[in-house]
Each structure stands twice: as C-alpha cells, then as structure tokens.
Amino acid sequence: MSEELSYTIEEVSKLLKVSKLTIYDLVKKGELPVFRVGRQMRVDAKDLENYINGNKSTQSSTNPVPLIAPHRAETKKDHNIVISGQDLVLDILGKHIEKHSAYKPLRSYAGSLNSLISMYNGECDIVSLHMFDGDTGEYNLPYIKKILIGYPYILLNLISRKAGLYVQKGNPLNITSWADLGQQHVKIINREKGSGARILLDEQLRIHHISPRNIKGYKHEETNHLSVASAISNGLADAGVGIEKAAKIVEVDFIPLVKERYDLVILKKPENEELIKIVKEILTNSAFKSEINSLGDYDISQTGNILYETF
Question: Helix axis angle, 286-293 relative to 88-100, nearest 10°?
C-alpha cells in the first residue's frame, strides 16, 4: 500500500468486512489512527496495513486472536467518544465537548435505530434519537426501553424541530397530509431503514392503514435529508419525509406535520460519569443554546431537560 493512499471509514469497513460502527469503535479505542479532512475522518493506508499486520503477528495456531476485538478494556488515555446521528447540532455539541473537556469526539452518521443498537453493543457513547411511536404518540423512550434492556441510562433533550414532507416547489400535486402519499399518482423517495425519518413514515402509514406496497417509490432510499430534498427538487419524486432546515437549503416546499423531539441518550456507567456531567453542563449553557438558536428552525425550550433516567 502507498503511504499517500488513504481510506474513508466506509471504505475501511468494506475492506475488513465489518460494520462502520466497528471501525468507529477501533478508532475510539485508539487501535486505528485517523486524520480529518474537513468533517470527514480518513485512515492512512499504512496505518491500516500496520493494524492488520499487528493483529496477524499476535495470532497463534492454537488460540487465534480475532481481527476485531470489541471487548478490549480501555486505558485511562482513551478519551475518544463516538457521537452518532446526522443533525448539524451534533457537530456543534462535539465542538463544545472537545473545547471543555479531554474527550475527542468522533462522528458516526448512522440512523437513530441503528445507533441505538450500536450503543447496546458498546460501539457508541452518545446517541441522538428521533423515533416516533405510533401506539403511544411518544418519541424515543418506547424504543429505548425495548433495546437498552439491562442498561441504566439518561435521556436528555437536545432540540425539537418540525418534521413533515418535502414537495416540489408550488406543491403541484397539492400534497397536505400523510394520507396523500397513498394516491396512485404520487411518487415518494424514502429514507434508509433504521433512520428516524423512515420510522416516522412507517408509523404514519400504519396509523393511516396504508400499505407500503401501495406507495410508489417506497423502495427508493436516500441516506440523509438533503439527498431526499435534492431528489424532489430535481423531479425524481413528488414527496419525501424530512425536516424543515433542509427545505431551506434545497429549493423545495415543506409541509410541516409533526413536531419531533430530538434527544440524546447516554449509558450510566462509571466511566461515563464525567461525560454525562459535561454534556449536561453544555446543554444548559447559554452560549451553546445561543449558537443553536442562531441556526433557526430549532426549538431549544427543553434543551438540557432530563426526560428520563434510570437508577
């Protein structure tokens, strides 16, 4: 491998045939060095080669060591943490954490459900969630209670925001509700499985007794709000689920349908005590709130509130 060659996290995960969050876990534990190009983390080809060769050299014929060792005990010098989620406010949170503590935040851009499962598996430290439960009308907690079984945790509000439907400029098909997506002439573009937007759509279809099989474009997926909005702006679809902010970046109209809570969950374990304290202080800090408020389209009235905590 050339020393000038480098890989993205996704490329490394494909090369090693493991999930991206497993690679984030290796980075978090200091086993795989990374460098940054803007917001993107990259792995130098030589460092990847050294990691692979290092694991090969420690194997024995009788007790081979697996390439990925997820249960290695962390040392005191391990200050990397993984923040999972896609909203811009998480980058701002990471910046404040790095500024006011010894932690070095790493970013995963997985969806809410996949991130929560990764937290259960010990691969994420702070997970952002916006998962609507159609049976209770609640956000996030019904899912957390089902997935983080056996773990103590704290749930904090980060922001609230409007979610709904992107439609083409001028809304030529007069789409105004979830039920309108069931019309035969309406083509949607979907989000990936495990994302909060996909869960919101699926729950609303269930509530309105609409089968996904009857939704044109249901299997066409994009992995973020901007991609969905862009596809609609370019005429590839008539509607898609997203948040208000992306509609102002891309030229589409936005039909607000729900106000969703965007929360943070952190496991309450001894090594996280300092992290929880720092996150609480940041979320209630006026400078942090002012920075979020300046972005517009976010409700910070509950920011920093403890919504649920196990003991």
Answer: 160
